[in-house]
Amino acid sequence: MRGPAVTRRRAGGVRLASVTTFLGVWALAAAIVEIGRLFNPIFLPGPWVVAGKVLRLGLDGQLWIHVGATLHRVAVGFTTGAALALALGLLAGHVRGVRTLVEPVVELLRPIPPLAMLPLFIVWVGIGEGSKVGFITYATFFPMFLITVAAVGRLDPLLIRAAQSLGARPRQLFLHVILPAALPDILTGVRLGVALSFFVIVISEFIGAEAGLGYLINDGRNFFLVAQMLGAAAVLGLLGYLGNAAVGWLERRLVRWQHTG
Amino acid sequence: MGDPRISIRRLEHWFGAGEHRAPALAGIDLDVAEHEFLCLLGPSGCGKSTLLNIVAGFLRPTAGEVLVDGRPVSEPGADRGVVFQEYVLFPWLTVAGNVEFGPRLAGVPATERRQTVARCLDLVGLGAHAAKFPLQLSGGMKQRAAIARALANNPAIILMDEPFGALDAQTREVLQDELSRIQRLEHKTILFVTHSIREAVYLADRVVVMTSAPGRIKQVFEITLVGPRDRFAPEFTRYESEITRVVKEEVAKVHE
Description:
The complex is a heterodimer. Chain A is mostly helical. Helices cover about 80% and strands about 0% of the residues of chain A. The two termini of chain A are about 20 Å apart. Chain B folds into two domains: about 1-80 and about 185-255, Rossmann fold; about 80-155, no CATH class. Chain B is built from seven helices and ten strands. Chain B starts with 5 loop residues before the first strand and ends with a helix. The interface of A and B includes residues 169 and 261 of A.
């Protein structure tokens, strides 16, 4: 049997080889620096040094404090952003009046890179938890809002007609047609929002934080702890990957119909 | 015969506004009796789908009115089931979920709903495909599901807008057979838009031929063939050629 299974296994093999090669080249470069004394090896620790550092931080419990701090901020900030974006986006997509009212403001603020607003958040809310959480909410709101509005706008009007002819009232149309029809796009927006959350939390943790993976990186910079910087970055990468996988799992469950046949 | 189920009175419809205003329907008067299967036939652009959309409540006529059981139509409703050429199934629901849609929204209890779904799917021959999603179905199966969905809501009237227009010739004839069989069991009042003369003669009790735009009623044919029809019977072909002659006059006008 030569089929997709064979192709998939081969693709998996190539992927594994690619990662191994990357780690190998990194390890080789670090070893050459170490042995050849090209420059101070603390600037380029090998993968084993980084892994050891992460392991040590994990064992003495420090890592979990930082992971917990970052995850907590992302969870609260992103959930708030998503709730606002979906509620307002569905409303604006569905009700023309709301759209005309909200969209110009969103269009006005959207082109400003969110990071440009970070110092302003700190001036307004201070450097505490509020500004970090609020900033994630602010940054993730725009893409999720716009995608939701577009998803509702793209709805096939015949679906509405079909539902009305089956007796659907306006509230039922919203719940049983508009929402499920827009769901695949909304989940794409959620995926984007999760990625963006991890993107902006690192930067707000660079500025005046006592915990968090961003803090760990910045702390490493101050004390030339390159292994700690790379280790924290790797953990952030892993969290981002898991976040994306969680949305993927949600997609497969909620939009099962797109994943069959 | 009693009062008509659908009563179309001095109906006029214009598309566009200002200088670009164009008449689509001009002075349509038509009654559809209870249990009648009526086909609207005409060249493309004659406004037959517009007329169906007005009866469905999707469009408001510029003038005149449509009465269903004596009451004017102002919006779509569960009393008028619609079957579209594009099927328009809800892709996120299974076949059973689609068929169940109307009864579920109406608050029909689950056990009763299950019976309705099973009965309607059997009626269209989709019993074995209840758990499939629309994406997994062929065009013919999608249209069977859409017909089952309309039947499950038990409307007195079913409006069908070129329902078999997107299907290949073989599937089309099979579905015509099925629809004619279903109608002999269910006795709905059906308004059916088509541009196939053969299809109209095969299915209809009455065929209404419309003029090219603006659409008016050109001629009405009673089809007096009884029971399951034979597409090759001499009477059938006689109807076919008679209606063809009338339709051709209108098609020729479009090209003048």
